[in-house]
Write a structure and sequence with these properties.
Helix content: 25-40%
Mean pLDDT: 92
Distance between the termini: 49 Å
CATH class of the largest domain: Alpha Beta
Strand content: 25-35%
CATH superfamily of the largest domain: DD-peptidase/beta-lactamase superfamily
Largest sheet: 6 strands, antiparallel
Number of helices: 10
Length: 408
């Protein structure tokens, strides 16, 4: 029996409805699902185990006063002996040299202006020799460059040359001393007392903390750094001169200045350079009022050896190391990895922390920077960018059509 008109009408209604639904799907649902923005994928941070460095104990002399530190590292590595200011003897000449260079600066390698010598300098030579101070010959009527005068004052510790330098730069020792005292105060060395420019006066006193600060200032001056490392040299008038620091070249020691007084024993402000994996660590230390130089030299060599062993080259991150991961709802995965290898030199026992910051991301190419890891180790701060190890792809059409709730 042929369909009735009602049946034909109903069939048409059904076909129309199906067509309308399909049309709506084509016009709205498919574009919405296939073209809808992809949700960001959050990072999952990986765990980080910080390297642990062994602690190092240092033994300092019980006599006098002493301390050791490292440039760029906080505080002192260790200290020993008393805390009251003690005579510093010829360590004074480092202050003298720095204050003179403040008035008459030199560039590294420059000779500088000529300094004349007069009969007054001959009188000074005799005066210092009568006080059992180290002196070197001069030529009355002659001249010597500022650099050479500095060299003779610092390397063999010539008192008459230190005074000649001061008289030339400031007119007299009386004019020099207020400037030197103000300079000490301006650099925080408030426990240091200066009464002359050579150190022959035992009332020139200081503390290990102040002297370590002085040593760091000396090492920051390229002229001073060059001169204090000279073992021996030959100069006009004086001939061959030898450094009074017998530890030069031993356990990395490259300075700084000896001090000797019959009434105040032997002292040494010293520095030692250590290289670890391309990183440079500079130790600065001092021993005051020791029995004699051989005794304190042996103690310092032992101390420096132990201190050098207490520094460690630590790798914080290796290029390609994983610090976070990404896992999308549609099954794509990748990781956030370090873009470079970084290392630092740490004093033993220094705590290391790491803060990992990785952003939520959309589909992205390999190498896209997605965050960074920040390391803290003592006073050192190091950051390493993080990048995607592989491409993070987007969802395919099948996943989009099957998961409209995660897109719309």
């Amino acid at each position: 029996m042929p369909p009735t008109r009602r049946q034909i009408y109903l069939r048409r209604r059904i076909l129309f409805s199906v067509f309308a639904v399909l049309l709506l799907a084509v016009l709205f649902y498919l574009p919405l699902t296939l073209l809808a923005p992809v949700p960001q994928t959050a990072a999952v941070r990986a765990g980080y185990s910080a390297p642990v460095t062994p602690t190092q104990s240092l033994s300092l002399p019980s006599y006098g006063a002493s301390a050791i530190a490292a440039v760029g590292y906080p505080g002192l590595l260790a200290s020993g002996g008393g805390s009251s200011p003690l005579p510093i003897a010829s360590i004074t000449k480092i202050v003298t040299a720095l204050v003179v260079l403040q008035k008459a600066p030199l560039a590294a390698g420059d000779a500088g202006p000529a300094i004349p010598f007069t009969s007054a300098d001959a009188v000074l030579l005799k005066s210092y020799a009568a006080r059992d101070g180290d002196v070197y010959p001069i030529k009355v009527g002659g001249t010597m460059t500022e650099r050479d005068v500095l060299t003779i004052a610092l390397v063999p510790s010539a008192n008459n040359y230190a005074r000649a330098l001061v008289n030339w730069a400031y007119g007299s020792e009386a004019n020099f001393l207020p400037v030197a005292r103000a300079w000490l105060t301006s650099h925080g060395m408030t426990s240091t007392t200066l009464t002359d420019c050579t150190g022959l006066n035992p009332e020139n006193t200081s503390t290990p903390t102040d002297l370590i600060a002085l040593g760091k200032l000396a090492l920051a001056n390229p002229v001073i750094t060059e001169l204090i490392g000279i073992k021996a040299t030959t100069l006009p008038v004086v001939g061959t001169i030898n450094n009074t620091n017998q530890l030069l070249g031993s356990v990395g020691i490259d300075g700084i200045k000896t001090g000797t007084l019959n009434s105040a024993g032997a002292s040494l402000l010293f520095s030692s350079r250590l290289v670890l994996g391309g990183h440079v660590v500079t130790l600065v230390g001092v021993v005051l009022d020791g029995p004699n130089h051989p005794t304190i030299d042996a103690a310092i060599a032992k101390l420096v050896t132990a201190a050098r062993a207490g520094f460690h080259l630590v790798t914080l991150a290796t290029k390609g190391q994983r610090f976070a991961s990404y896992s999308t709802a549609w099954g794509d995965r990748t990781t956030a990895i370090a873009t470079k290898t970084v290392s630092v030199v740490l004093w033993g026992g220094t705590a290391i922390t790491a803060k990992i910051s990785a952003s939520s991301v959309l589909p992205a190419h390999r190498g896209t920077i997605v965050g960074l890891v920040s390391f803290s180790a003592g006073t050192q701060r190091v950051t390493v960018p993080l990048e995607l190890a592989t491409k993070l792809g987007g969802p395919d059409p099948g996943w989009r059509l099957g998961h409209p709730g995660e897109l719309l």
